Each structure stands twice: as C-alpha cells, then as structure tokens.
Amino acid sequence: MNSTNEERCKQLQLDEKVSGVVVLYNPEADVQLNILSYLPYLDTLYIVDNSDIKDVSLVANLKSVSKVKYIDNHGNLGIAKALNIAAGLAIKSQMKWLLTMDQDSRFEKEAVAIMLDYLKLVETSTIGIISPLHIIPGQGRSDTKDHSPRRLVSIATSGNLLNLEAYQDCGPFLNELFIDTVDHEYCLRLNSNGYKIIQLPKARLLHHLGDLKRERVCGIGTTVTHHNYLRRYYITRNRLYVSHLYRHQYPKWRRKQIMTIWRDLFKIVFAEQDKLRKLRSVFRGVIDYYKGSLGKYVE
C-alpha cells in the first residue's frame, strides 16, 4: 500500500470509527490475504476463532498484527455468538460501525473506501447495513452496469458495515440459530424496525460459497453448492424458522425460501454426493423446526 492510500485509510478511520470482525472455522492459510484487503481501514479487527483444532502457526501470525485482537472460543459456538462477542467489544470501544467478514471473502481494490465514503454523503441514523456487491465465483452472474445504491430486504453477512447504534436498538444476533440464516434474520429485523439495508454495487466483494460448481441437472445448467449434511440441517431448519417468524411482514421472502428448500432437495437428489445423509439432515431440520428445537445440532 502506497503512502497516499495509507493517509486516506487514516482519514477514513478518524471519520468513521470502524472495527471489524472475521469469524474463523478451520480456515485455510489464504485467510491472511483476505484480511489484508480490509485491515488498513479498521481501527481494530476482532478475530473470533470457532475452530475445533487450531493452526498454531496461523494463529501466531494473526496475533502478531498490531490491530488484531484474537478471541478463542475454544470450539464452535456458532456464527451468531461470534458476531455478538465482537459487536459487544466494539461498542465498549465506542465504535460506530462493525465490518462483518467471512473468512473466505476479500474486497476488491477501494471497495471499503467506497463504502466509507458513502457514509459521509448520507444521513446514517436510519441505515442499518451498508453492503457491497457480492461476486460469487462459479455462480455465473455478471456484474451490474447500474452502480446506483439500492435498498435490499436482506443480504449475507460478509462485507457488511453494521451500524452499531441500530444493533443496540434491535438487539443481538440470534444465538439459537447457531449458523445459517443468522444474517438474513437480522436484516429482516433491521427492516422491520425502520432501518435500511443499502447495497453499493461499485464496492465489490469476492465471496466463495460452499463447494460451488456448475452442474447439469436433468439437462438444465444450474449452480450446486455441495454443502455438507450438517449445513443442510441448519439451512433447512433456520429457513423454516425465520420464514415463519417474518411470515406477515415479508410473505414474498418467505415464499422464496420455501421454494429454495424444494429446489435444494431436487439438487441433492440429482446432483450431489452423500445424498442419503443429506436428505436425512433435511428431514431432521424440518422435524426440529416443528418441535421448536433450535441451537447446536446434536448427533
């Protein structure tokens, strides 16, 4: 990074008071390169480690960075718990915004600066989240030519600037969801409380999603995530739970989630491996939703 960019980062830091959080779960070594794409813009980066087995060398490297505060959860406590830990620490440090990152995401050049610059141009009291455009390798989506800010109903966690005043107003992420749909539930809650979710298409985030592949299913090209059986449990259970929770405020969103569950079942049967175990997990997710059984999956 050259001196001009360093000065710009310092100015943005002073203006906006931004902390960040990245949640780790058995990460690859390239997580360090991902972190470097946004670290210069932050006052502090909270690295919350949910890994069951730690990469000692990687952890030592991360701890050696001056802006980093490493938090070991001594096992997987879920994405919601990790985000709440970081948000609480950021609020204690009087931060205004929290950048929420997945370990497998990185920003393209100037993306964070674009998001922070936008905050200077608008009234931020009614903004809950500022989000980048998610570019997902392998999904086959082209970039948009319309760079106008757009309002969304919900968006995935990674790359978002979360307004910590809105967070304090609306409450924490739902720990009982553990992982999956945690982000969408929170966006729906922000919207329900009058806060906007704004996406800036000029700010681009490269976000890897599962073991994403293009497959032909019954002669039709489609994208298949190949999530493992455990993720299939959480995805199914939590989509049903959140869809029911917001069924009156967001009926279109609910219908889309139900259709997605059926579409995923179709893909599991015709395009994925480990079909039986995944189908059993989907079935158990449905049963646990109806039983009201949330929290961490117990085999």
Quick recap of the structure?
The protein is about 40% helix and about 20% strand. It contains 10 helices and 11 strands. It is globular, with a radius of gyration of 19 Å.
Largest sheet properties: 9 strands, mixed
* Number of separate helices: 10
In CATH, the architecture of the largest domain is Alpha-Beta Complex
The CATH H-level homologous superfamily of the largest domain? Spore Coat Polysaccharide Biosynthesis Protein SpsA, Chain A
Specify the helix fraction band.
40-55%
Overall number of domains: 2
Kindly estimate the percentage of residues that lie in beta strands according to DSSP. Answer: 15-25%
- What value does the Rg take, in angstroms? 19 Å
Write structural notes for this entry.
The chain has 299 residues and is α/β, with parallel strands linked by helices. The protein is built from 10 helices and 11 strands. The strands form 2 sheets. Strands 1, 2, 3, 4, 5, 6, 7, 8 and 9 form a 9-stranded mixed beta sheet that branches. Strands 10-11 form a two-stranded antiparallel sheet. Strand 10 (213-217) and strand 11 form a beta hairpin. The model has no long low-confidence stretch (mean pLDDT 90).
